[in-house]
Amino acid sequence: LQNALKGAPATIDFYAFDLLQLDGEDLTRRPLLERKEKLQAILPAKNAILRYSDHILGRGEELLERFCAAGLEGVVSKLADSHYVAARGGSWLKIKCIKRQEFVIVGWTPSDKVRAFRSLILGVHDGGKLRYAGKVGTGFDTAELFRLMKIMAPLEQKA
User: Fold this and answer.
1) What secondary structure, in 3-state letters, does the chain show?
2) CB-hemisphere CA count at 13 Å for 68?
3) Domain-by-domain residue ranges, the chain?
């Protein structure tokens, strides 16, 4: 879409996944699967640009794993009998393919420049023990480096 808006050649497909109104009738109080059934019925079966976004019932965790393995952003899980709500609510859940890990700052390496420190030394909890996980030194601006050092310095313990 961004390329097309800039005037560059691009192929754009539109995937329709919900139908909120049909022939003047408000469908937002109808269950999701009923709205999708009506949507599928009015879309042309073979259209190169306008496409029906199908759904898969159940097996959400398996589907998320497959999508993440394929490099996709994630999935949106919806309750099949949910009504349409314009704001985010509990019946729709966006799940992204982001891996998270909690780390503990176990130390820092000194800097030979004007930086407060060169890098943070990280550990991870593993079976009741703290295991070395690596270092991180990028992504901090100067103010953030000094703010972190102000918090960490009073906690320093000589090993």
Assistant:
1) CHHHHCCCCCCCCEEECCCCEECCEECCCCCHHHHHHHHHHHCCCCCCCEEECCCCCCCHHHHHHHHHHCCCCEEEEECCCCCCCCCCCCCEEEEECCCCCCCEEEEEECCCCCCCCCEEEEEEEECCEEEEEEEECCCCCHHHHHHHHHHHHHHCCCC
2) 12
3) 2-96, 104-155
Strands 119-126 and 92-96, how do they pair?
A: unpaired
Cβ atoms of 12 and 48 within 8 Å: the answer is: no
The Cα–Cα gap between 144 and 11 comes to 43
Question: d(Cα 2, Cα 102) in Å, to the nearest integer?
Answer: 35
pLDDT in tens, 5-29: 788 887 888 889 999 999 999 999 9
Q: How many CB atoms lie within 10 A of CB 58?
A: 8
pLDDT tens for 100-128 read 789 999 999 988 877 888 899 999 999 99
pLDDT at 60 over 80: yes
The answer regarding whether domain 2-96 maps to CATH 3.40.630.30 reads no
CB-side neighbour CA atoms (13 Å) of 52: 16
